[in-house]
Sequence to fold (435 residues):
Amino acid sequence: MSAPAPTPAAAASPGEGARVITAREAGLVGCRRCHLAHAWGTERCTRCGTPLQSRDETSLQRVWAWWIAGVLFYIPANLYPMLSTRVLFTTHEATIVEGAIQMAQSGAVGIAAIILIASVGIPVAKFAAIAWLAWSVQRPGRGDGHRRTVLYEVVEFIGRWSMIDIFVVAITSALVHLRVLVSVTPGPAAIAFALSVIFTMLAARSFDSRLIWDGIGRGRT
Amino acid sequence: MPAPPDPRGLVVCPRCDALHHAPSLKAGGRADCARCGTVLEAPRRISVAEVLALSATVGVLMLGALFLPFLSISSMGLRNDSSIIDAALAFSTGLQTPLVLTVLASIVLLPLARVALLWWAMAPLAFGGAPLPGARAALALDEDLKPWAMAEIFVVGVAVALVKIADLASLTIGPAFWMLICAVLVGTLQEALTDRSALWRELEVARTRARASA
Fold:
């Protein structure tokens, strides 16, 4: 039931096919929260009070800063134990990957797959995707705008799901505090992993997706 | 560069900065950005009061999920049943404190904060009054907290954890678990039925009216 797309504000220049004009080209600035257009130089959105910026000038700096922090914390997250299980007097420690392998060996292949995808697949793919997005906007004319916008949306949507392993560890250890015979405690990797996920989410949120489309405008005639 | 157009009646895509004439849509319609396809507006028939009612439902269910028994575990004659808050308090020692706080915040505290913020921003409007001070900041913060509220991820985490420790001990699911699932479902419904730009417009109208009568 979707209505036709709203008309772009500026008509196409003849011979070039329909070309969208941006708020910046029109000498306006748009609110990213409530979408309202404002005159150039307006400091805050008149409707929602959000500070207005035609382009986030510090976006890429912040993306790279959070990205580096996320990658750095991802290293100890994988080297240190995520979970240490003590049954009677034997303590057993396992990193993320070791834990998943043990799950698979004990028959729970589906669970092992969820953990591996959420804790290794998604974070690594996300590091690569954010780096590619930030790198590509610094090199105008590269890549497909639609594809990169979709990639950005996927990164924003899926990144949070990496937290699942942290929740599993928290639930397992909270439940099994029968203490006497069995105890399960989160290892140092848990906090490192949580921080890595948080930093990567911040990196994704610092990215100004309008930069993707600016590059295309300049790169192609 | 020609003189900039009058910004009134124009909307801008937040993803790609494309300028559009503000679409006039009926409830149930949807306007996408002509360039990148981002949804610009999707008006809904739901009223502010109905949005608030759904959000209050989420709040009540979340409180129940926080304090009622969540899961019980029994192993070799020992039994341990605990609510989320019990579990959090039992673990808030030493190095685990930041971890416990992160988990607690993302599964219940932030969803509860979002309910409170939405009510602060919008409730006076539903009752015909003037907006409270800071209403705009509250609505904006509610929006910003959205990705950090992770109750739905926690629910999947519980399912994984249940399989993981099923052979260590026997487990029983308590009422709080079901309340959390209901909270996630009602919350998802609320997000799907709410048109955020309509909330902003209503708030703007109410603020203008309040300023005019002051």
Observations:
- Chain B has a mean pLDDT of 87.
- Chain B has two domains: 1-43, 48-213.
- Chain B touches chain A through 83 residues (CB under 8 Å).
- The CA atoms of residues 24 and 135 of chain B lie 26 Å apart.
